[in-house]
Amino acid sequence: MKRKTAILVTGIQNFTGTHYFKQLENVFNRNEIVIAKHIKIKPNPSELLIVHSMAELTKKFDFVLVVGGGSVIDAGKLIKNRFNTSAKLVAIYTLPGSATIVSPFAVFDNNEFKIGIAADNLIPSYSYVNTEIIQSLSLERKIIAIAGIFSHAVESLYPKANNIASRTKAKNSLNMLKANEVESLSTQALITRIFKLACQKGSD
Question: Residue 10 CA to chain centroid, in angstroms?
Fold first, then answer.
């Protein structure tokens, strides 16, 4: 059987510093999967940075495996779009907040405003949501995820390009957030935490 080659895309440290990463390496070894390149992505990466990370790659690859949140998955989409459109895109979602695992879009930062690409083949070939990893997230990471879900839902309600389906999904997301308190926090306490966290990040 021909050995498969993959591009592995993860976050900077959240996943690679856990025992799950070691388990993933064991899976690669058992199935004779060669990692041609391991790319670590910071939140909101630029398109140029992602493309540059693929410089000097000499091996062909069969699929792109992405493990992380929206920024990581979008980076994997760009790699597929730019370097091998026939490669399988496999997404392991570890931080909710983005719909990128079910959409044909990818969004990047160009230091001034958001830019993006769209193609039907950018919907992941396989998607897996690991609830164990998500449940193990710190309260701060959970709040970041909730803030992401909230902002994406609100954004979907107001643009001229929205439709009945997008509005319905957005309202369902907001209702789910309202119905499910996080770590026993009330809605008001949760919103307060989100704004405090945003202010802290803004002053870093």
Answer: 9
